[in-house]
């Protein structure tokens, strides 16, 4: 980490812990210089970085102040699903939305991916070339599940840095996190079984349940702190589920982040019922705060937490390398991988092992987080300016999605269709629910470079929503 | 194709069509030179190539003769399964055999893969590097199912050369053929349904059925000509299956090759019952004759044939790029791919598209076929020398597996364990049957460079079998 980045992280931590309060003046550049012995340019760079993230703001001829992060809008209310299990049948709706959203010329607010321009594709390409030059031909056979040994070692090292003990042996390399999640699900649930999910929940989770013939019970979820444990306890009693699938950090679509003590309580609650937790953690590295959020797996004493993640959202989209650390189910998942698709692609595995070994991953992640935080701030301000009164939205501490609840009376599916006619894609709320709830909600992606087109697109969406309310 | 290769292919074709008969003398080098206007070295190279393949043999001071391909042993009899459906539960046995066979120091007769040294890994590495240097970042998002457009175009071109009309649009790129087969199976069959398979059949087919909760009906299969259509017709009447999964060319484990007219009759028979054919064709390119065997898909008039293949056995093991051409089920398979593992790895797809575009694939295939044919001949001769009287084996026209039926009284599972103690892996017959039949059979892999250790290993296997018969 460079000096200015370290300084920025330190100040961000002080803001997060409320040591520095909203509106408070930051030490001047001269003060920092004298007290810390750093150069003025280091301080300026740190302040610019924090300003780009929206954490501090400059006032002309006065200096830098902690941003007034009064919420730009109230956050949406926690969901209150009816707690009845549902045979999942949402795929057709999801596909029609996804197909419409893949047109490159559209403003990509409905996309599931951040901009590919944010990733070090050139460096990854060079890493792949270097690794393939040195390839041991026999590795093409030996790198069957659980996967390339060096890559698994690198992943295990990162778990250790995050305070979680995961042996390299426990890690099964998969064809992206989606395959990891599917395999974990199949390892513990069978057709007709029930699985608890968040409300709203990621549509791919619903599609996976649908494909395997599982029933979904959506559990009340708070837009800032994730699944509500009281509602979870009731669902555990009532439905005797075989698994619980939760995105514990920066949930898709809400952006909710379960606090560490709540994660611990979650793991303990599920352990009392002996129910496995499938912890979908693909956004965990995209935090805007000072530290990576804790993993629920950290609190796992019984091997019941199946932690799944990938490099697709934070480093190498398209390389299709994910993994599962499935606790006591590791061998079962490994064998399912073998009978489902044999192994993950060797060139991708080797390229990532090489890249991680070179040591630039954390620097890339810091840049990526900074870019996403800045783009989030800009999208929030634009929504606050252009959307109709009564609009609520989340203010996630990481990831690249905002969850927007428009006033009752706005139909997101209609809005989705009208927006497409204006060259704007959005992800309408009903695709995030087996019951097609959240009819007035949108998930908006701020993972792309913010420009005047984006500002105009938000204005158009706001106008379309107003038109509906007046029509 | 080089001149000597073209000449060798031409002669091989004449042998295959019986224009040149076993034991017949080939034209002398001088004759070829005069009649064809080619150089002596071209003729010598062609003859050396054919000799390496076991197609011709030199007799000192006499010239070259078409090899006496009297069978070295009688072929095994066609299987006679009982036609009762079976809930599949074979995975544990398969895994214990596979785990034992992955030890690199063992003689790899039990391996499912040919030697990785037979593949142009360096050239593929350079192709990957070149493709990744030119990558369009947006392709990392756009290359979702059905996959990279250029790669699909290249595959469609090869279909056309084989006389089959497959649009690039029909092709879904998958994570190896195994995923393609799994997705095709899931597109047409649901838990509790029945699927017809060969007897013996590839264990991964049995594992796929087991994982999805399908019932297998094993249908009588001839060791040279594949599934028997009379038995198939009975099974169609009796079991009302949802699909039929057949390896039409160089079946694993038998090596059987269904003749073209039988493939046509197969497709017509299944069409009368409206039953989809999952055509597993991963070995089709590894033919020793003059021409690629016909695809059953060639005779498909109703879109019922789901053709699956990959580059894993003939070009790029470990790249995990396969595909399905699923006829009328194409969109369904594409969507299943999206919900199962999203997409195939982009670096592998780009590398293969680049390699295929460069045009060296057919030359590589010719070399590979020559090497496999030569190794097959050597293994057959060694078995004929060392195995006990009464041993039968197949003489496949392609692929890299021999199916050996030892005399009744030899237990292949015992032989497998004893062989491992001698550092030799074999694939015992019972892993190729949901009923654990074929107790006296072995599948032996000749896909590795033949040497004295291999000769000695065959002798050891022969001795172990004799010990069992005498014990």
From TrEMBL, chains A, B:
The keyword Magnesium does not apply. Transmembrane segments: none annotated. SMART domains: HTH_GNTR. The keyword Glycoprotein does not apply. Pfam families: Aminotran_1_2, GntR. Residues 1-69 form the HTH gntR-type domain. InterPro entries: Aminotransferase_I/II_large, HTH_trans_reg/aminotransferase, PyrdxlP-dep_Trfase, PyrdxlP-dep_Trfase_major, PyrdxlP-dep_Trfase_small, Tscrpt_reg_HTH_GntR, WH-like_DNA-bd_sf, WH_DNA-bd_sf. This is DNA-binding transcriptional MocR family regulator. In the C-terminal section; belongs to the class-I pyridoxal-phosphate-dependent aminotransferase family. One of its GO terms (molecular function) is DNA binding. Keywords: Aminotransferase, DNA-binding, Pyridoxal phosphate, Transcription, Transcription regulation, Transferase.
């Amino acid at each position: 980490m460079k000096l200015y980045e370290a300084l920025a992280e330190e100040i961000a931590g002080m803001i997060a812990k409320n040591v520095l309060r909203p509106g408070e003046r930051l030490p001047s550049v001269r003060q920092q210089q004298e007290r810390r012995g750093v150069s003025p340019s280091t301080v300026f760079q740190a302040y610019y970085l924090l300003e780009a993230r929206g954490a501090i703001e400059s006032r002309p001829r006065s200096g830098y102040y902690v941003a007034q992060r009064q919420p730009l809008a109230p956050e949406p209310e926690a969901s209150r699903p009816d707690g009845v299990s549902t045979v999942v049948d949402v795929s057709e709706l999801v596909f029609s939305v996804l197909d419409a959203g893949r047109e490159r010329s559209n403003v990509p607010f409905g996309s599931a991916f951040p901009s590919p321009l944010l990733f070090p594709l050139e460096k990854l390409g060079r890493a792949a070339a270097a690794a393939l030059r040195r390839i041991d031909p026999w590795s093409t056979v030996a790198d069957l599940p659980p996967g390339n040994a060096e890559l698994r070692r690198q992943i295990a090292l990162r778990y250790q840095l995050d305070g979680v003990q995961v042996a390299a042996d426990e890690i099964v390399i998969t064809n992206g996190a989606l395959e990891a999640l599917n395999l974990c699900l199949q390892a513990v649930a069978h057709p007709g079984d029930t699985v608890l999910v968040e409300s709203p929940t990621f549509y791919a989770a619903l599609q996976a349940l649908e494909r395997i013939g599982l029933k979904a019970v959506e559990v009340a979820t708070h837009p800032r702190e994730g699944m509500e444990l009281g509602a979870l306890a009731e669902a555990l009693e009532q439905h005797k589920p075989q698994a619980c699938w939760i995105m514990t950090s920066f949930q898709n679509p809400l952006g909710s982040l379960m606090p560490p003590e709540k994660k611990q309580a979650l793991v303990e609650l599920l352990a009392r019922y002996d129910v496995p937790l499938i912890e979908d953690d693909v956004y965990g590295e995209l935090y805007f705060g000072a530290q990576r959020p804790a993993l629920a797996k950290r609190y796992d004493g019984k091997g019941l937490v199946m932690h799944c993640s990938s490099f697709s959202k934070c480093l190498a989209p398209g390389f299709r390398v994910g993994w599962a650390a499935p606790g006591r189910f590791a061998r079962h998942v490994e064998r399912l991988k073998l009978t489902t698709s044999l192994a993950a692609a060797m060139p991708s595995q080797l390229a990532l092992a090489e890249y991680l070994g070179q040591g630039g991953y954390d620097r890339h992640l810091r840049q990526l987080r900074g870019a996403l935080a800045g783009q989030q701030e800009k999208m929030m301000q634009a929504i606050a300016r252009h959307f109709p009164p009564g609009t609520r939205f989340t203010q996630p501490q990481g990831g690249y999605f905002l969850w927007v609840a428009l006033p009752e009376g706005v139909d997101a599916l209609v809005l989705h269709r009208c927006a497409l006619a204006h060259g704007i894609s959005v992800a309408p709320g009903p695709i995030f629910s087996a019951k097609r709830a959240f009819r007035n909600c949108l998930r908006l992606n701020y993972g792309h470079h913010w420009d005047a087109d984006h500002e105009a697109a938000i204005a158009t969406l706001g106008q379309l929503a107003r038109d509906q309310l007046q029509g």
